[in-house]
Amino acid sequence: MSATARRRTTDHRTRVGRERSARTETKILAAALRVFAERGPDAPKIDEFVAAAGISRGTFYNHFDSVGALLTATSEWTTGELLRTIEVALDGIEGPVLRFGLGLRLFFAKAQSDHVWSLFVARVWKMGSLELPVRDLEEGLQLGLFRAPSPDAMRDLLFGAVREALLRIGGGHASRQYGDEMSALCLQALGVDSRRIATVMRHALPAVVPAEAVER
Amino acid sequence: MSATARRRTTDHRTRVGRERSARTETKILAAALRVFAERGPDAPKIDEFVAAAGISRGTFYNHFDSVGALLTATSEWTTGELLRTIEVALDGIEGPVLRFGLGLRLFFAKAQSDHVWSLFVARVWKMGSLELPVRDLEEGLQLGLFRAPSPDAMRDLLFGAVREALLRIGGGHASRQYGDEMSALCLQALGVDSRRIATVMRHALPAVVPAEAVER
Fold this sequence. Notes:
Two copies of one chain form a homodimer.
Chain A: H1 3-39, H2 46-53, H3 57-63, H4 67-89, H5 96-113, H6 115-124, H7 131-142, H8 151-170, H9 178-189, H10 194-202
Helix pairs in contact in A: 1-2, 1-4, 1-6, 4-5, 4-6, 5-6, 5-7, 5-9, 5-10, 6-8, 8-9, 9-10
């Protein structure tokens, strides 16, 4: 075998190995999402994830050191994926009220299409990851389109409302219109007048390009 | 001893016994409030309550069958006490916007004065007990003073906001004005205009008559 052919074979093996490793990691994350959604962030033990993913303990530890590390990775995996999807869908849409309102509608539409995801996010999500809406919120406040007595109160009200909404949706207790109703109410909470809210609610929901197919 | 004297002695013993039993129960509830606030509703075992209250296991079981029963009782004890206090304080105050807004301000003032209570309520409270504000909310909606796309969305937004607020206050991360800021933002979320909100915020906070002294 020539040096080039040998190198190619090695590259091929490395690539195949990396792909297999990535697939295993996705499998663990998808299983972890289900386990965390059912049992909350603190209760589950490593063996539950091992059983849910159908892997060995050794394989688990090749990927994650602890339940805490797995929780962080699962949280970033699921919310990061959605936030990128929403960002792409909102590309070209102007104005913080319209962008924030449509972003909320897309967020709740995702929740209504995937109750496991919805419960998971409700139970473990920290607002820290929500970078995109924060940008629109700040712009809206600067332009006087949003009003709030303080950033802390605004953050807590929105975060609390979204978390309760995800619990209701994930528990299967939401009507079909619920996501849009909650989006409209969040805009009202930000001091947006009813005419502008109606415009956001009438606007066609931007098309969402699904993130790369993942094994769930 | 005459029959009357005997009866009096028995009555006295019964009363003393009942009073002692009530004091023990209050002691267990106060200890449970601290334990639940620190550890959440699901994690604690009976021995932790026994140790925190400084009683025997037998005494515990004389009062409560299970951690679940204790949680329900603690929840009713703490929120029921406050809701009665607020109801009394609001006596004679007219109009759902003013009543609801002042009720919120009093509620958060209590939270800011007692972080253990605040964390406990944030972690275990079910909205079900919140009877008084519901009455004001319904009246406000009927009069067109409050607006919401649906009762579910309204309930979830308010409950979520209050819970996040209690977590922030209980964690010691709230400014002195935070309770009033969150009260104002909740009114804005209900569609109340800024002039009316300002009136509620300027209104003197009604005097609160402390509930009967309890051992904490």
